[in-house]
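FIELD: query
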Amino acid sequence: MYKSSDFAKRGFCKFCGSNLFYRMNDEEGVGIAAGCLDNPTDIHINKLIFVKDKGDYYEISDDAEQIGRY
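FIELD: result
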């Protein structure tokens, strides 16, 4: 894992350099870039971050927790 900022560490693919996951310094969980997983995943979104910065063309229509800024 690479300390990419004062608040998080990130993990990258050793072959192509793609960002695969991150971990906030003060949290237990790991955020995984779901786009890097093969289908079907059977995963579900439980938290949306940076919703205050979303484009006006996005519509949030589920019940996931929404966090304006992280």
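FIELD: remark
The chain has one domain: 2-67.
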